[in-house]
Write a structure and sequence with these properties.
Helix content is 64%, strand content 7%. The chain has 360 residues and is mainly α. It has two domains: 129 residues, no CATH class; 149 residues, Serine Threonine Protein Phosphatase 5, Tetratricopeptide repeat, CATH 1.25.40. Strands 1-3-2 form a three-stranded antiparallel beta sheet. It is elongated, with a radius of gyration of 28 Å. The two termini are 36 Å apart.
Length: 360
């Protein structure tokens, strides 16, 4: 064998060995990130996951990184707000993409990454030192975007993971990126037309986006495609709850109030027709009739609405009494599924999930 061939083989062996070391280091860093995450040291966990991804492009690490970014993201803060990450020159500052250096006067303590502002009036705790120092920071909206992007990598590898889909959607909602959430779920609906669960998710997201008209439309579609009667009733009741909640907020114009009240009443009438012994649709209708009466002011229509509300309240009381008597006699009562559900919510919420161990 020639010297050239020997050298080529040696180079190949060295490259393979180097790649193997990188793979090993990447998975070790993922495990370190998991430990730091469990210790609630989310910034340090992010740094380890980011470094691990440079060495091992594994969907598991993408998932862990998304989860850690979602913990650093500040729910309720503006997208352009700067989230302080770590002290300038730290490992985290080197690893987090898009980090910029800012100078702040904050409370400093080794290992603590809260960086609360301080001055003559806002004094640090005794174990902290008030100091003007260089810190790296990332915009809050960028943190949300990075979390969602890394969740999406995991979802491509695990398309049926509904829990992670809910977490990803929640990040979009929490960061007011409603269009991204709606586009994503509408694509899911294209792949699975007439899926009531997807439609229900779209209804919830649109409600969070303050588009109650679209929300009502989606709930009506859920009722239309649902084969189970209790699911139809629940969808109509959701519309009633949307109407009650928005009318009670007193943020709508008079025409909007009347329009939404009409939609809520119409849906609740359908629920009552499907389950005439359930008092809840009648009680909720009564409340909405009263809201509509207030919106219409001193008018003949308002008087009729108030009278109708009183009649419906009477029906609800009678049905409630019948239900109590039936329970006392041990007789079956109206099924609970048709009752008033809790306020509508988008798909999923922030669930208490931890990082996933890397395979291999």
């Amino acid at each position: 064998m020639s010297r050239t061939t020997d050298r080529a083989l040696l180079v190949l062996v060295l490259v393979v060995a180097a790649l193997g070391c990188e793979q090993l280091d990447g998975r070790n860093r993922n495990r370190q990130g998991n430990r730091l995450f469990r210790e609630t040291k989310f910034v340090d966990a992010v740094a380890q996951y980011e470094k691990a991804l440079k060495e091992v492009n594994d969907p598991t690490i993408h998932y862990n990184l998304a989860l850690a970014y979602s913990k650093i993201f500040k729910v309720g803060a503006e997208p352009t707000d700067q989230v302080l990450i770590d002290v300038q020159g730290s490992f985290a500052c080197q690893q987090v993409p898009g980090a910029k250096i800012v100078t702040k006067q904050v409370c400093i303590k080794p290992g603590d990454k809260r960086f609360d502002p301080c001055d003559a009036k806002n004094v640090c705790a005794s174990s902290f030192k008030c100091q003007q120092i260089g810190l790296c920071a990332v915009e809050n909206g960028s943190l949300a975007a990075m979390a969602a992007d890394h969740y999406s990598v995991w979802m491509k590898a695990h398309p049926k993971d509904s829990d992670t889909r809910a977490l990803m959607t929640q990040v979009w909602i929490d960061s007011s990126q409603y269009k991204k959430a709606i586009d994503y779920w509408e694509d899911l609906l294209k792949a699975s037309p007439n899926d009531p669960n997807v439609m229900g998710s779209l209804a919830g997201i649109n409600l969070k986006a303050n588009d109650w008209r679209k929300s009502v439309q989606w709930y009506l579609k859920v009722a239309e495609v649902s084969k189970d009667q209790s699911a139809k009733i629940a969808a109509y009741m959701f519309i009633g709850n949307v109407a009650w909640s928005k009318l009670n907020s007193k943020t709508l114009t008079t025409p909007e109030s009347v329009e939404l009240a009409d939609k809520g009443i119409g849906a609740l009438q359908k629920a009552a027709a499907l389950q005439p012994k359930n008092p809840k649709p009648f009680g909720l209708m009564a409340s909405i009739f009263n809201f509509r009466a207030v919106a219409q002011g001193a008018s003949w229509a308002a008087s009729l609405d108030r009278a109708t509300a009183q009649d419906l309240q009477g029906v609800a009381r009678v049905l409630n009494e019948e239900a109590k008597k039936a329970q006392g006699l041990g007789l079956p009562t109206a099924p609970a599924k048709g009752g008033t559900p809790p306020p509508p919510t988008p798909p999923g919420s922030r669930t208490a999930r931890g990082p996933v161990k890397a395979g291999g």
